[in-house]
């Protein structure tokens, strides 16, 4: 827990560094430009299709009449834009995560290493192709879980919890691999991800809950639909900031855990059992039994002359 909180506060402070702020501009501009381009090309088409589907639905006509009866006739006009926005939100989240992962995480990890772990050896246990496969396979699993749990989002508590768990798992998978890819060997990466799996997952879930903040930006209904051009960049900026913080948090935690792993004394494993303390040279000689060899009797007492 001490390492977890120490890494958290260090990540918060690093977010204020001019270098980190400068690095965050590129993914932010990239995602905002892409969102504006897609919105310019497909926004009207998507809203028209959704509105046509809503008008053609027989059971929704009862809902519209009920809304008119309670004095909310204008609510129907904002439902279609909001449905389009909520549908593309997962794509915006994924795009922000991938942009930060590919464009910022390696640089942020090197920044943390330079300032805190200057002597940490780089073993390059993760190649570029392996990183791409790891990221996109994790992405497919997360999107599959998202589609399977979509009906459960109608339950109010699950509507906040399930996306946080899914995005948290995806963030943990992507960030942990990207941070350790350059500095840890494959064996060290597997060891750390197994040893700290619950902590890393918890970090991902926390950042996933933080990533739910943009939903407050467009939860204002008609106001959001009217201020779409302004509020979407704000939401994307929040997503980018959350993933930048997440990258720094994982970098501080994972590199500190890697340094601690390398500082551990080398233990001798015999028949799958790890001794609590390092074995003495005599114990090592007594336990080193090769194929077909017999146990050797070794003592740490030398016979005295004349005995």
Which descriptors apply to this entry?
mainly alpha, single chain, 0% strand, 307 residues, 75% helix
How would you characterize this protein structure?
The protein is an all-alpha fold. Helices cover 75% and strands 0% of the residues.
SSE diagram, text form:
Elements: H1 2-14, H2 18-56, H3 58-69, H4 75-103, H5 105-116, H6 128-148, H7 156-183, H8 186-195, H9 197-210, H10 214-217, H11 222-226, H12 228-263, H13 281-287
Helix pairs in contact: 1-12, 2-4, 2-12, 4-7, 4-12, 5-12, 6-7, 7-9, 7-12, 9-12
Q: Uncertain runs with pLDDT below 50, 5 residues or more? A: 219-223, 267-304
Shape: elongated
* Number of beta-strand segments: 0
Q: Beta fraction of the residues? A: under 5%
What share of residues is helical? over 70%
Which structural class do the helices and strands define?
Answer: mainly alpha
Radius of gyration: 27 Å
Distance between the ends:
58 Å
The major sheet is characterized as:
none
Number of helices: 13
Q: Which whole number gives the mean pLDDT? A: 76
The topology string of helices and strands comes to HHHHHHHHHHHHH
């Amino acid at each position: 827990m001490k390492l977890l909180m120490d890494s958290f506060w260090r990540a918060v402070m690093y977010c204020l560094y001019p270098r980190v702020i400068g690095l965050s501009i590129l993914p932010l501009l990239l995602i905002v430009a892409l969102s504006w381009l897609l919105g310019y090309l497909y926004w009207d088409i998507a809203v028209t299709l959704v509105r046509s589907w809503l008008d053609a639905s027989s059971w929704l006509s009862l809902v519209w009449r009920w809304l008119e009866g309670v004095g909310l006739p204008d609510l129907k006009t904002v439902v279609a834009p909001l449905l389009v926005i909520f549908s593309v939100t997962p794509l915006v989240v994924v795009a922000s995560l991938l942009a930060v992962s590919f464009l910022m995480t390696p640089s942020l990890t090197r920044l943390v290493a330079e300032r805190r772990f200057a002597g940490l050896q780089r073993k390059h246990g993760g190649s570029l192709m392996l990183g791409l496969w790891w990221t996109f396979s994790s992405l497919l699993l997360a999107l599959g879980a998202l589609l399977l749990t979509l009906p459960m989002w109608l339950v109010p508590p699950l509507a906040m919890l399930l996306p946080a768990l899914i995005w948290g798992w995806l963030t943990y998978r992507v960030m942990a691999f990207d941070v350790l890819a350059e500095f840890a060997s494959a064996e060290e990466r597997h060891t750390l991800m197994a040893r700290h799996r619950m902590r890393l997952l918890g970090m991902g879930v926390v950042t996933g809950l933080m990533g739910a903040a943009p939903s407050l930006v467009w939860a204002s209904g008609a106001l959001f639909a009217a201020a779409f051009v302004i509020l979407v960049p704000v939401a994307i900026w929040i997503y980018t900031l959350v993933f930048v913080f997440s990258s720094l948090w994982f970098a501080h935690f994972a590199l500190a855990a890697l340094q601690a792993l390398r500082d551990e004394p080398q233990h001798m494993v015999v028949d799958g059992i790890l001794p609590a303390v390092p074995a003495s040279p005599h114990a090592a000689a007594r336990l080193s039994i090769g194929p077909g060899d017999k146990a050797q009797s070794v003592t740490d007492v030398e016979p005295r002359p004349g005995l």
